[in-house]
């Protein structure tokens, strides 16, 4: 769920400090557990929780347990509201503190801190609007720590433009994990982790001419562009192997529920190929079909502004029905935007675009993989691969 990583940062902090330290007896009987996730169901005093890592556990709420509700974004228990177990509903987010049972699959809860599903939805809508109205995104091309500025290159109506991002000690800095496309997994990170070439999205007050922005929040990440042909597909494991045309090496690509798969119709692929022949990669840099994995703020990284052909192409791809691994075959040409990944684990697909044979033939050797943009950032602050 978008933005919950950010929303829970404060909750997780005070949640850990809420209960008293466990006694020796409690430690001997079971380890202290603090799972968080989404309520799947409630039956009696048992809450079935789908945790953020995708597993299910049963939370047995003790008679003396403290149940509180906080608003999304709230960072202390000062204004928390006491609730009853019956007030919990499927879809609510909860942070549980308790003792892990002997079976390792359930937790005896002494404290439950909840966020109401409808409150979260309203918060997400507000945040999306804020990122859309007050956000800008692009590629980092300069960092001046002493001056407190980061310069990014954006693409507006196909024209590249630099925007200077001003930051201070109060600016919230987050960074995507190297093996995740979820905004929930974006963690606070120091400035020195931002590198030239990174994708960056900032939200704050922008100058009248749009050339500068004073940032309240910055989210950055390193992503990988791959263009190549499929060597093999393992539908059961949700992976495929791709021969990267640039490196001539096999890359293992994992497909998750958040990955966006599309397959271009032949006529659209031919049109894009013709445009590439006419103008090279820059002709489509702002037309990049944006990635939209399920967790994170949205809004055009690499293309803060949209216009003309860029809008047409992005909207056209957005209207395409989702594809699946079964729609792909060995030997198919694909273009992929993925996480940077780790050496042993491969990469996770953010966007995979099939049906791109004409594009790979028409594009310059090093241009095809850069057509796709890793984040859909111009939609605002809720769902996708970037804020």
Can you tell me about this structure?
This protein has 387 residues and is an alpha+beta fold. It has 3 domains: 4-123, OB fold (Dihydrolipoamide Acetyltransferase, E2P); 139-221, OB fold (Dihydrolipoamide Acetyltransferase, E2P), CATH 2.40.50; 224-370, Beta Barrel (OB fold (Dihydrolipoamide Acetyltransferase, E2P)). 18% of the residues lie in helices and 37% in strands. It has helices spanning 4-17, 24-29, 117-134, 266-279, 309-319, 357-362; strands at residues 32-33, 36-43, 46-51, 56-69, 81-82, 93-100, 106-115, 135-144, 149-156, 159-166, 172-175, 187-188, 199-206, 212-221, 223-234, 239-244, 250-254, 260-263, 333-339, 347-354. The strands form 3 sheets. A 5-stranded mixed beta barrel has the order 2-3-4-7-6.
What's the layout of helices and strands?
Layout: H1 4-17, H2 24-29, E1 32-33, E2 36-43, E3 46-51, E4 56-69, E5 81-82, E6 93-100, E7 106-115, H3 117-134, E8 135-144, E9 149-156, E10 159-166, E11 172-175, E12 187-188, E13 199-206, E14 212-221, E15 223-234, E16 239-244, E17 250-254, E18 260-263, H4 266-279, H5 309-319, E19 333-339, E20 347-354, H6 357-362
Parallel strand pairs: 4-7, 10-14, 11-14, 17-20, 18-20
Antiparallel strand pairs: 1-6, 2-3, 2-6, 3-4, 4-5, 6-7, 8-9, 8-13, 9-10, 11-12, 13-14, 15-16, 15-19, 16-17, 19-20
């Amino acid at each position: 769920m978008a933005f919950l990583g950010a929303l829970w940062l404060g909750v997780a902090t005070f949640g850990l400090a809420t209960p008293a330290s466990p006694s020796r007896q409690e430690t001997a009987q079971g380890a202290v557990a603090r799972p968080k996730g989404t309520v799947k169901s409630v039956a009696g005093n048992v809450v079935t929780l789908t945790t953020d890592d995708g597993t299910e556990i049963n939370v047995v709420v003790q008679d003396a347990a403290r149940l509180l509700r906080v608003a999304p974004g709230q960072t202390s228990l000062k204004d928390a509201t006491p609730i009853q177990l019956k007030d919990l509903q499927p879809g609510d987010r909860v942070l549980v503190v308790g003792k892990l049972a002997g079976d390792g699959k359930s937790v005896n809860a002494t404290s439950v801190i909840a966020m109401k599903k409808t409150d979260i939805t309203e918060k997400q809508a507000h945040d999306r609007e804020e990122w859309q109205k007050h956000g800008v995104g692009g590629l980092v091309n300069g960092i001046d720590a002493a001056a407190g500025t980061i310069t990014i290159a954006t693409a507006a109506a196909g024209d590249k433009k630099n925007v200077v991002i001003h930051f201070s000690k109060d600016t919230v800095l987050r960074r995507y994990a190297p093996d995740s496309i979820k905004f929930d997994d974006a963690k606070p990170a120091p400035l020195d982790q931002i590198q030239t070439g990174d994708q960056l999205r900032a939200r704050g007050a922008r100058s009248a001419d749009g050339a500068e922005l004073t940032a309240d929040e910055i989210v950055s990440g390193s992503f990988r562009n791959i263009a190549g042909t499929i060597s093999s597909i393992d539908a059961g494991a949700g992976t495929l192997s791709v021969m990267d045309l640039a490196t001539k090496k096999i890359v293992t690509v994992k497909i998750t529920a958040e990955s966006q798969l599309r397959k271009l119709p032949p006529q659209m692929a031919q049109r894009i190929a013709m445009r590439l022949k006419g103008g090279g990669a820059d002709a489509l840099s702002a037309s990049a079909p944006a990635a939209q994995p399920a967790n994170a703020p949205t809004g055009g990284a690499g293309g803060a502004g949209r216009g003309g052909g860029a809008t047409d192409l992005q909207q056209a791809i957005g209207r395409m029905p989702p594809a699946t691994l079964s729609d792909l075959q060995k030997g198919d040409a694909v273009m992929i935007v993925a996480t940077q990944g780790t050496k042993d684990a491969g990469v996770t697909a953010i966007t995979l675009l099939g049906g791109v044979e004409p594009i790979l033939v028409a594009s310059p050797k090093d241009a095809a993989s850069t057509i796709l943009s890793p984040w859909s950032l111009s939609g605002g602050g809720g769902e996708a691969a970037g804020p």
